[in-house]
Amino acid sequence: MKTLGCMLLPRAHVQTGRYMSQSMSCRSSSCADSHTATLLPAMDDTVQSVLQALLGIILPLQSDMFFATLDQAFQKGPDPCAVTCILSGLAKQQALDASLLVITWHDLHKYELNSYHYSAVINACALACMWAKALQLFDVISQREVERNIVIFGSVMSACERGGEWEKALSLFRVMAQCELEPNTITFNAAISACGKGSEWRKAMQL
Question: 81-114 pLDDT, tens per residue?
C-alpha cells in the first residue's frame, strides 16, 4: 500500500548535509549552542533528542533508520503533543521530506494524526515553497475526516501565498467562510498578501 508520505516524497531527491546536526542530542532546553533548542525552548529533553536524531538522518537514503528512530522513541505508541513538537521542529528546519516520513510512519502503524500534526507538515510545505503539496495534504485531510479548523486553513493559505498562488489562497478563504469559520489574523494576512502579490488590491479591499 502506498502511503501519503511516499506519494509526496520526491523520488530522486537525496538530502545532503542540510539536515545534519552538530550533536545528536540536546541535554538541556536552555542549551545556548543548540539551534533547535532556540527554536523550541519548551520542548523537553527527550523530544529534543529525538528531533536532533531525526534531523541527523540523510533522506531518503536512510529512511529505515528514520523509522527505527521513531519506533524506538515511541515504543508504546506516539504521544500527540510530542509528535506536534517534532513536526514543528522539522518544519522550522524546512525538513519537508522528514515531516512527510513522520506521516508515513503513522500510516504504517495505523496511528491517528490530528489537525495540529497536519498543520505542522503544511507549514513545512509553506517554508519550502511547495504550495501544491500543501494543497494535496489539505485534500487528504478532507478524505480522512480530520477537522479542517482555522489552523489548517491558515497554514494552507500561507503556503499558497508564499507560492504566489493568490487565486487559490482566496478560494480557500471563501471555503473557510462556507465552513462557518471566523477568519483570524493569519488567514486575513495571507489573503491580503496574496492579493497584493497578484496586484488584486480591489479583491483585498473586499475581504
Answer: 999 999 999 999 999 999 999 999 999 999 999 9
Amino acid at 43: M
The string of DSSP codes covering 131-198 is: HHHHHHHHHHHHHTT----HHHHHHHHHHHHHTT-HHHHHHHHHHHHHTTPPP-HHHHHHHHHHHHHT
Per-residue pLDDT tens digits for 114-135: 999 999 999 999 998 899 999 9
Could you write out the three-class secondary structure of 24-53?
A: CCCCCCCCCCCHHHHHCCCCCHHHHHHHHH
Write out the H or E segment, with its range, that includes residue 113.
Answer: none
CA angle 122, 84, 52 (to 5 degrees): 100
What is the largest distance, in Å, between two alpha-carbon atoms of the chain?
54
